[in-house]
Amino acid sequence: MSNLREHAVELARQGADQAAYIFLQKAVKDGDVYASNDLGVLMERHECYKEAYNFYCFAWEHKVPVAAYNLGNLYLRGLGVEQNYEEAVKYFTYAAEAKYAPAFDSLSVMAHKGQGMEKSDEKSFEYILSGIDYEDKKNPILSNNAAFYYESGIGTAVDENKSFELYKRAAKYDKECSTYNLGLCYLFGKGTKVNVNKAIDLLLTACENKYPDAFYQLFKIYYEGKCVEKNNMLAFSFLYRGLDLDSPRCHLAMANIYDGTDNPENEPNHLVSLKALRY
Questions:
Q1: pTM to 2 decimals?
Q2: Residue 111, burial from CB neighbour count under 10 angstroms (0-12, 13-18, 19+)
Q3: What is the pLDDT of residues 79-96, one digit of tens each?
């Protein structure tokens, strides 16, 4: 990263976008083509999508992988260009060929939904496995997704052992979703022996990182009292903290409790919170 671009990125982090824009333009003039991609990101932040598109195009002409990925996202969402799933797939494929891991995730999602290509869970899973070795260990979304596919049997045979190992790998860096999922493995004995204490520790870590479903799961554990001593005071402390994070599952649980069903997993009959209805 050039000194000009490094300075511009720091300015952007501080919210000084106008100054960052000036330094990035200078960096591009000095031959730093990655700065053109950064200009595109800056334009997207201010919803100037056509300008972002032009900056990404310039960067991709000079083979900047993340620029191809960003172009794919513009086509996927129809921002600054007409929405075109086939074009999105094309640019995501360019980025994937350059081993840019997030592109594999995008292609996986599009294959799963049948956007710009034939719908295929097998192909979706294939994209995940193809990109998993290139992912940033600090952002292990592909490992987490592969684990979920193995756990659910999406595009592959169910394999709880592989699922557990992948969740474990991802949870080393992802203290939210992957840690939550690993906690559920220990809670329900998926790919490993049941270990309630370990499960609770992992769910608490996910709560510390404000992962909403972890609050719901801890509420359920202490509210039902099946594997630990029932503790309504502790249960509702987790439920209310989940509500503060706008957790759909916590809203639905609260609606069911007020409805008189006394079961957080039942479908509510009539008294449903508006927050729950949104989902």
A1: 0.85
A2: buried
A3: 999 999 999 999 999 999
